[in-house]
Structures are given as C-alpha cells and as structure tokens.
Amino acid sequence: MTQFDDAEDDATPVTAQRPVSDEARSEWSSVAHEDMNLRAYRAAIVAFVVAVGGGLLAAIAYWTSETETLLGVGLALALGGIGFGLVSWSKYLDLDEHVVQQREPLRTTPQQDADFEEQVEVGRQTVGRRKLLVGLLGGSFVSLAIGFVGPVGSLGPRPRGERDSTGWAPGRRLVTLDGSPVDLSSGIFDQLATVFPDGMIGRDDSQVVLLRLRPELLSERTIDDGALDGWVAYSKICTHAGCSVGLFGVDDREPDVVRQLVCPCHQSVFDPTDGARPVGGPATRSLPQLSLGVDDEGFLVSNHDFDRPVGPITWDEG
Ligand code: FES
To answer: Does residue 315 form part of some domain?
Structure first.
C-alpha cells in the first residue's frame, strides 16, 4: 500500500451517513406532520376554551361592576382566543400546505394501498374531532355575545323619546329650588333663577332659567312665544352638548347694553331678549322657550310643555 493509499483511507469519514431511503424519509415526514397536526388541534381546543372563559369573565365583571380591568381582560381573552383558535384550526386542517404530486401509473402497490387506508382512518378521526372544535367555537361565540350584553345594554335608550316631553304642563307652577312659587310682581330686573315644575324639583329635563328683563327689550317673537310682563323662561339644557346654561351677564358698556346667557362648557352664548337664539360659540339652536302664564293667586305657571325637544340636536333631527 503506498503512502498515497494510506492517506486516502484516512480521509474516509468515520461517521459518514448512509443515504436515507425515500421510504424512511416519507415515514419521518409523516410522523412529524401528524405530531404537528395534533399540536395545532390541541392549541385550537385550548384557545376556544380560553375564549369561552373570557366571555363569561366579561359578563361576570359587568354584573359585579368590576368594569375597570376585568371587563376588558375578559373581552380581550374572548376575542384573542377565538382568533388564535381559528388560526390553529386552519393549521390542523393543513389549509396552508401546498402539495405537488407527479403523475404516476394507475397501478397501486400494496404499500400504497396501506397508505391509503391509513389516510382514510386519519380522515375519519379528523371528522370526529371537528365536532368538538365546532362545538367549542360556537360556545366561544355565545360566550363572547354574553360578554357584550352588558356594555351594549348600557348604551341606553335613544334620547329623543325622553326629551320629547318634560314635566311642564298647562297651569303647572314654576318653583325655585326651595319649593317657593314665583310671584308675577316680584323680582328685580336682570337676575337669573333656576326653576322647576311644582312637585318635580331636580328633574333634569325640566330645569329652566327664569329671567326678568325690561319688557321693552324683548323681541316680538319672544313675547309671542310666551314672555310675560318681562319674565322669560328657557330650557337650561344647552343645545350644544347638554351642559347647564347657568351664567347670565350684562355688558353695559356704551353704545349698546348687551345681555347674554352663557354655557360655561364651550362658551355658547344665547340672546335672552330674542328667543335665546345662539349668538356665539358652538351651539346652533336656540334654547327652547317655556310659555308663561299666571294663575289665580298671581304666581307664574307654564301654559304648556316646550314645543320642541330640549338639549342637543338629536339623531332623528340630524
Ligand atoms: S355644552 Fe354648552 S357650549 Fe357646549
């Protein structure tokens, strides 16, 4: 043996791998694939169970008023669980697998027959598992819907129906916060008071700002709409976003003396001498005016309810 031959022998790797047969490669691939499929299946089940738990947690959080954190966590778990479960399910079904199969002779070997039977069996098991997954997916959607019942229910009724009618009615006295009726002959000019319908002190939709202004300052339509001997009454709910119009100011600098009702929230300004029409700020609608009368004892009363909804513009009017 030559020196050259020795070197050639030494160069032969001791750990040289044997070529892998196609059958063995196919078998390993099949085992790995089955393993991955099972992991995706289990992941989908866990995700849907988490989604069901999340929806129930959200519902419990709402009914126990634990809405600061638990409600959000529950809904996040429900939505996240459903999303992750669907992705895992698609992995389990091999929806992302791309396979190219070469055309082969239409004769099968015993090995191919065995493979086919095995695939049929796997398919049968898959259909059986699908029932569980479909059930869990349906359960997670139901649970999610339950979790949303509370928050959606809290949106409440549409506002128009409530504001179409207030506590004002023909002959109902105007009373101050301490329950005192307002005498037609009382009061000094340029002062504001908050009044309510008699027997309904504190009712939100019926609060009214009552002013006594010099009668000669009032516009014709303000008088026509129910001003009485200088008394004017307007809804106190701002037509912009519903704050209380609680400020009244008189700017007596020459040449014109200006009287204004002001909403402090976003500085909407209304002219009380002219039907409380908006003259500044974001409000675009006049404050509804309450038509005034006087009863047998000389106290101010309402002639009827407001002739339009109080407060901000409603969906139906938009
Ligand atoms: S709510 Fe009155 S100005 Fe905005």
So the answer is: no
